[in-house]
Amino acid sequence: MKKLNLLLISFALLLTCFIQITYGDMVGYWKFNEGTGTNAYDSSGGGHTAVLSGAPASWVAEQIGYSLEHNGTSDYETITHFASLGSDVSRTINLWCKLPGDQPQASPFLLKKGTTFYIYGANNGNSGGLSFVIYDGITPAGANIPCTSVFDDTRHMLTMVIDREVQKVHVYLDAVLVASGDVSTVGDVSSTGNLILASFDGTGYWTKGHYLEIFIENRVLSQAEITAIYSNRKIGWGVPPWKQLSWGKLSWGSAKRY
């Protein structure tokens, strides 16, 4: 019976891999598994290295692999010249994180790309909202969810989807759609500016907590795809499904810490 269950799980994961292998719009993927040094490397092939700045953040050993722990007062990451995140295109930003409620800053910024888009919390993570905003330099628009859903010292998968075809943004928490917003008033966004993690600009609005993984794709991920990604992490398999196949051959990643 145990062998049959393992075979069924393996078959289900194999089907998920084949369903997702055609996706080729990933522009950034940071696993934060280096464990040492001042660089977090981009596994998407784009070469967008995240440089640990400020204190910097600490590498923390998980059950398998590592995460980056931010103190909430002086550490962040910088990814320079990320033009792939400009222009008026649809995209998905996916972040695995573990953030406590005692955020030192009133409005911690989880992620910010110049004036293009940003994710930030309000009121010390205890009330208010977590906002996902896109911005064309004139009109900001986006969606909000309660901070208490995220700042609870528990691992979560946050997924932010920008769908420019229908001019909507969607926010998913652990693969569940929790908020949507209209962005039809937002024009073309800028491609300039660095991608900053865990701070507004490296001088304040720090985020306290662990970052386990981030990836960005220049396309809209469906609800089914987001659910499959979340389920794969919860099951404990390694690399995202579309990274597990190479020239039609299956190669499983090592188990992860989610």
Describe this structure in words.
By secondary structure, the chain is mostly beta strands. It has a single domain (2-245), classed as Jelly Rolls (Sandwich). Helices cover 14% and strands 38% of the residues. The chain has helices spanning 2-20, 223-235, 241-244; strands spanning 26-30, 39-40, 50-54, 58-61, 66-71, 75-79, 91-98, 109-113, 117-120, 129-135, 140-146, 155-163, 168-173, 176-182, 195-197, 208-217, 245-246, 249-250. The strands form three sheets. Strands 1, 4, 5, 7, 12, 13, 14 and 16 form an eight-stranded antiparallel beta sheet that branches. Strands 2-3-6-15-8-9-10-11 form an eight-stranded antiparallel beta sheet, with no helix packed on it. A hairpin with an 8-residue loop joins strand 9 and strand 10 (129-135). The longest helix has 19 residues, at 2-20. It starts with a helix and ends in an 8-residue tail after the last strand.
Short descriptors:
single chain; 258 residues; mainly beta; Jelly Rolls; eight-stranded antiparallel sheet; 38% strand
CATH architecture: Sandwich
What do we call the CATH topology?
Jelly Rolls
Tell me the domain tally. Answer: 1
Whole-angstrom Rg: 18 Å
Identify low-pLDDT runs: 8-23, 236-258
Describe the largest sheet.
8 strands, antiparallel
Helix content: 10-25%
Shape: globular
Give the count of helical stretches: 3
What fraction of the residues are assigned to beta strands by DSSP? 35-45%
CATH class: Mainly Beta
The string of secondary-structure elements, in order, is HEEEEEEEEEEEEEEEEHHEE
Q: Distance between the terminal alpha carbons, to the nearest Å?
A: 26 Å
Class from secondary-structure proportions: mainly beta
* Count of DSSP strands: 18
**What is the overall pLDDT average?**
80
